[in-house]
Specification:
With 145 residues, this protein is mainly α. The protein is built from seven helices and three strands; from the N terminus they run αααβααββαα. A hairpin with a 7-residue loop joins strand 2 and strand 3. Helix 2 crosses helix 6. The two termini are 18 Å apart. 17% of the residues are buried. The mean pLDDT is 90.
Length: 145
Amino acid sequence: MHNALVEIVGEMNRPQRDEEMIRAADITLERALFPLLVLVERLGPIGVVELADRVGRDHTTVSRQIAKLESSGLVQRQEGVKDRRVKMAVITKSGKAMTDKVDQARKKMGEAIFRHWEEQDVADLVRLMRKFADDMKSAPVGQGE
């Protein structure tokens, strides 16, 4: 299972995949900003430190990249609810429209990958991946048995 996950994550993180997704969605966006925009849409409001942690980049780099997304009108920053000193990134209407295009492109690409799969196999995969993701989120980090 570990080897399969390493291969899947490696394929999903290839810069060529993001470039292909950007082309297929027919959007104009710097490739380095692409995963940040998607994460802000999916997880926002989200702070820069958490974003940086999720993408494996330095928080100062991510802060500059969020500023670029903000100047493009795709995200905006707002005060944190728990701590007003923390600025949280949230998606704008323009940003959401862009991620909707990405979702459509992703759906078409997924259909191509799964075109020879049985419908039940795809449904089982989705169900088990959701279960796996949920269990990973709830498991304490660094506390193997």
